Automatic annotation (TrEMBL):
Homodimer. Keywords: 2Fe-2S, 4Fe-4S, Biotin biosynthesis, Iron, Iron-sulfur, Metal-binding, S-adenosyl-L-methionine, Transferase. PROSITE patterns: RADICAL_SAM. Its EC number is 2.8.1.6. One of its GO terms (molecular function) is biotin synthase activity. Catalyzes the conversion of dethiobiotin (DTB) to biotin by the insertion of a sulfur atom into dethiobiotin via a radical-based mechanism. InterPro entries: Aldolase_TIM, BATS_dom, Biotin_synth/BioAB, Biotin_synthase, Elp3/MiaA/NifB-like_rSAM, rSAM, rSAM_sf. This is Biotin synthase. [4Fe-4S] cluster binds at C69, C73, C76. It comes from Clostridium lapidicellarium. PANTHER family: BIOTIN SYNTHASE, BIOTIN SYNTHASE, MITOCHONDRIAL. [2Fe-2S] cluster binds at C147, C207, R277.
Length: 328
């Protein structure tokens, strides 16, 4: 136990001094338990404070096209392979997208993400042109940082989004390459990596993270994190599985809250200067321990409702941040 304690102190101080953690060291930190987890969180909090300050980045998502997706992602309530109670609808009206974005800004969001179900776009689709125009209008009528989550892209589609004012592209790889075949069979891992590279080449930031709690090991979460580090993504959303009845993962065993907090802290050690975001599943999985996510190094948060599930009331999120003396 003392050896692990000393290792946390050594690695934590090295990162605060501008150094890095190795994958083997991160895996060693994954063995932390009991009070060692809180020492880990203490260093993660100092690392977050040094490299990112005390401001929490708030974003909001608009589910602009829901359900009927031909892909078979095991966790997803919008997959046509599953039988869930999720609302299915085609792309919503362009005016409605813009009106919703304006409301989200008034509610406190700094970023707004248009998300659609489906594999992705080549850049020639009618719906894609509608989305582009909605982004142009959002740019003209709000001060929001514009984000998109539209699935896989071609280089042409990525460039069109950037030209329309989209500053960040969200494209989660979901899980480690070694675990991915257990989750998705209808599209490949490299196809998703290509989209990240296209988005960065077009000049957009990339938001790409993970869903934890799907049956992967801690070492696989770390494997995934080091790939994201290699790809130099700008923001890492950390989702925790919220099992939906009717999906393949409806009976997944939930992670212990402390396991989630420990994972957050290790992610901060791996990504000292990146935006680590609280994303889906935090309310159900962490419950009263949500504030510990920020102590473990989180510095961003999705507010409001998620794609197909309800989020915590925004005023409760703001109260939590105020109580932690964090700004937004």
């Amino acid at each position: 136990m003392d050896e692990l304690w000393d290792k946390i102190l050594d690695i934590g101080q090295r990162i605060l001094n501008g150094g890095n953690i190795t994958r083997k060291e991160a895996e060693d930190l994954g063995k932390c338990s009991e009070s060692d987890v809180f020492l880990l969180c203490s260093f993660a909090n100092k690392i977050r404070e040094k490299f990112n300050g005390s401001k929490v980045d708030l974003c909001s998502v608009i589910n602009a096209k829901s359900g009927g997706c031909p892909e078979d992602c095991a966790f997803c309530s919008q997959s046509a392979h599953h039988h869930t109670n999720v609302k299915c609808y085609p792309l919503i009206d362009e005016d409605k997208i813009v009106e919703t974005a304006i409301k989200r800004e008034k509610a406190g969001a700094k970023h707004c993400d248009i998300c659609t179900s489906g594999l992705g776009y080549t850049g020639n689709e009618k719906n894609f042109k509608i989305i582009l125009n909605a982004f142009r209008r959002m740019k003209a009528n709000t001060n929001l940082k514009l984000c998109a989550c539209l699935g896989t892209l071609t280089m042409d589609a990525a460039q069109q989004l950037a030209d329309a004012g989209v500053e960040r592209y969200n494209h989660n790889l979901e899980t480690a390459r070694s675990f991915y075949p257990n989750i998705v069979s209808t599209h490949g891992y490299d196809e998703r990596i290509d989209t990240i590279r296209y988005a960065k080449k077009a000049g957009m930031e990339v938001c790409s993270g993970m869903i934890m709690g799907m049956g992967e090991t801690m070492n696989q979460r770390i494997e995934h994190a080091f790939l994201l580090k290699e790809l130099d993504v700008d923001a890492v959303p950390l989702n925790v599985l919220n099992p939906v009845k009717g999906t393949r993962l409806e009976n997944a065993k939930p992670l212990a809250p402390i396991e989630i907090i420990k994972t957050f802290a290790i992610m901060r050690f791996i990504f000292p200067d990146k935006n680590l975001r609280f994303a889906g599943g935090r309310e159900k999985n962490l419950k009263s321990l949500q504030p510990l996510g920020f102590i473990a190094g989180i510095n961003g948060m999705l507010i409001g409702d998620y794609l197909t599930t309800e989020g915590q009331a925004v005023n409760k999120d703001f109260q939590m941040l105020n109580d932690l003396n964090l700004t937004y």
